Amino acid sequence: MSASLDGFWLVDHQGQLVDVNDAYCELSGYTRAELLTMRIEDLEVNQTPAEIAQHLRAIRANGSARFESRHRTRNGSFVDVEVSAHFDATRDRIVSFLRDITAKLAADRVLRQRTDELTERLKELRCLLDLSTLIARRDLGFDDIMQRAVDLLPPAWRYPALAAAQLTLPDARYATANYQETPWQMVCDLAASEATQGQLSVVYVEQAPGYEADPFLPEEHLLLEAVTQRLSGYIRRWRVEEELLLREESLNSLLDLSQRAFTLRERDIIQLALEEVESLTSSEIGYLHFVNADQNTIELYTWSQQTLRQCTAAHDEHYPLSQAGVWADCARQKRPVVHNDYQNYADKKGYPIGHTHLIRHVSVPVVEEDAVRLILGVGNKRSDYDEADVRQLLLTAEHLWRIVRQRRAEDEVQREAERVSTLARVASRLNAHLELATVLQTVCEETAQALGFPAASVFLSDNPAHAGCQTTTLSHQSGATTAECQTELLTLLAAANWDLDVFVLPPAAPRDQVGDLTAVRLIHDDRCLGVLAVYSVGTARFWEAADTILLRGLANQASQAIVNARLFTEVRQNHVQLQTLSRRLVEVQEEERRHIARELHDEVGQVLTAVKIDLQSLRRQSAMTPYAARLDENIEITQRALEQVRNLSLDLRPSMLDDLGLSAALEWYVQRLSQAAGLKPELTLPTDAPRWAPTIEITCFRVAQEAITNIMRHANARHVWIDLQYSPDDVRLRVQDDGQGFEPAAARLRATQTAASVGLLGMAERVELAGGQLKIESAPGQGTSVQVIFNTPVLR
């Protein structure tokens, strides 16, 4: 039981601990002597003594039990354990194994928390999905949909049993049966284009458990806002549809427009609406223009077909609002404008040659968040325009804007999803490579593919501090390109205006080979790494604003990948240099050891031998009899010095390693040291082993030398086994002892942080430099095994 990783108990029928193992001592922090004086109730946290006694009786009756419990440790902390108890009837004892499950329970708690969070998000998504399905139904009335929408909310909240909801409109109220005013509520306004339509609120009828302030999750606030927005949109749409029903045939066209909105392109939808509103107002001309985000320019978007047949005036795509005539007053004033006597209007401006002659005119804006989004206008009705015409235009314009906005949002979501997917794919490919050439080629291929260009190139800067790319050189390219095209590309980029981070070649710019060109600087930590360019050869490609966003994202990923690749190359080169220097240092060290050993043996040893011979000669002379005792003492000192020099020479570099090989050197070294240390060695050494390369033999010998030294110093072992095996494919040396063992991972950590256990690092580094593998297996109380493996060893 002492070797078991789990804790072990042996208790009597009264709960007195009779025996424990070391694992439970380590788990509880108590010593064995302390634990043997304790009862279960001294350690158990969850059960009372009476419950413990009852539990013991149940185990004795049933024979075994498995349960979870919590124990108190010596330092006052708690540890969760899984107990597997068995009743030993022969000894009238209960045997229990206790496993520490603190980490497991913590992981389970995290999993439950994540599961709870996911459950909450799924409830919220289900609420939104059900609401979308509900408001899309045509078989239910308005009141029914509103009530059902309110009933959908409480189940989506964290504490559905405590949740209640209410929707208040100017002329109606919808609430769950348990709704009441409480301090714990969240409210969101239902806003129309001009005024608040009502409020949507969710409350807890009782205080939520564990919350004193705001009991609602941040996601629940977002959910309420999303529900409010959808209900607001539904209410606006419903009121529009009510107005359409009241206008009968004239408003049925808008219903038809709504039904066809999702099957037509945006321009086709707008064109259809424009033709319908022109017909409904009995007008002869019609137009729809968008106001740009700067609120200073108008995007001249489209005219009705009848208008285009009458008007031949040239126009620009973007028109300054300040230069527009009174037809744009609705945008400046943010309200509908009617001119039933246009020609006599004092502040009107002239219109270009070829423009349709205006008699009457009405225009309305669509205002959202205090910004004009579009202008819808008609003109030349045979009679004056009235409020009904204004209402018809407003109705059409706002309904059309919702369609356009939704379509654009959907298109943007789809584009964003495609961008994210593209960037994720590119990131995955780039992260899979750290070679700079492969990274650059991947960047070119992915950029050209993602943006639909036939070719892409990366130019790395020779001067990273430069703001532009005048000093760039071609690194990599992908796709259909030519050398002439690359030369022209460098010229165009060198002359580019880099005031903005993205350069788009103007259509009028002179070029021979390049069709379209868009480039972005590769920036990292305010340093220009180079330029990423996509281009066509000969043909043109339309560049969209969304392409710029994707190109910037690709450039950011490319910049980071280039930096990572360069860092990897630098680290790899430094690692190779470090290994070369380390290998050379080991070689020099061994050469120096061999030299010193030879000098000690040949020079110092000979001198000491000569001194000893001279002293012995003097001792034999009769005249030196009075000095015999001192001569004998000096002869003994000289002999000890000679033996020490010989031992030192052998420790530095045993000559038999070079002369007789690894097996003989190991046998000599082990027998020599084991006798002095009192070890019982068992050697398994082949007598017919070939001579391997000096690097392999000296590495194996040094590892064995270090391992045996460690055994003598730290292991407190009685036996040591040295096993040398070889085959045509490998050489294996194992040094094993039966000592006290240790934790290799902890020892390696100490070696990297302090000067302790550096011998392990030294062995590992020496073996790695020699091209081998070092395996150290050990555990407290289980001895240690050190193994060196050389695959495909080189012979001498």
Blueprint (SSEs and pairs):
Blueprint: E1 7-11, E2 17-20, H1 22-28, H2 32-35, H3 40-43, H4 49-62, E3 64-72, E4 78-88, E5 93-100, H5 102-135, H6 142-156, E6 163-169, E7 172-175, E8 185-191, E9 196-204, H7 218-246, H8 249-260, H9 266-280, E10 285-291, E11 297-303, H10 305-310, E12 318-320, H11 329-333, E13 337-339, E14 361-368, E15 371-379, H12 387-431, H13 436-451, E16 455-461, E17 472-479, H14 483-494, E18 502-504, E19 514-524, E20 527-537, H15 545-620, H16 628-652, H17 655-659, H18 662-677, E21 680-684, H19 694-715, E22 719-726, E23 730-737, H20 744-753, H21 758-769, E24 773-778, E25 784-791
Parallel strand pairs: 21-22
Antiparallel strand pairs: 1-2, 1-5, 3-4, 4-5, 6-7, 6-9, 8-9, 10-11, 10-15, 11-12, 13-14, 14-15, 16-17, 16-20, 18-19, 19-20, 22-23, 23-25, 24-25
Helix pairs in contact: 5-6, 5-7, 7-8, 8-9, 9-12, 12-13, 12-15, 13-15, 15-16, 18-19, 19-21, 20-21
Commentary on this structure:
By secondary structure, this protein is an alpha+beta fold. The chain is elongated and about 155 Å long. Helix 5 (102-135) runs parallel beside helix 7 (218-246) and helix 7 packs across helix 8. A six-stranded antiparallel β-sheet has the order 12-11-10-15-14-13. Strands 2-1-5-4-3 form a five-stranded antiparallel β-sheet, sandwiched between helices. Residues 464-475 have low confidence and may be disordered. The two termini are 50 Å apart. The protein has 21 helices and 25 strands.
- The order of strands across the largest sheet is 12-11-10-15-14-13
Oligomeric state of the chains? Answer: single chain
User: Percentage of helical residues?
Assistant: 40-55%
Number of helical regions? 21
Unreliable stretches: 464-475
Q: What is the number of E strands?
A: 25
Radius of gyration: 45 Å
Beta-strand proportion: 15-25%
If you average the pLDDT, what whole number results? 79
What structural class results from the helix and strand content?
Answer: alpha+beta
Amino-to-carboxy terminus distance? 50 Å
User: What overall geometry do the principal axes of the alpha carbons give?
Assistant: elongated
Largest sheet: 6 strands, antiparallel
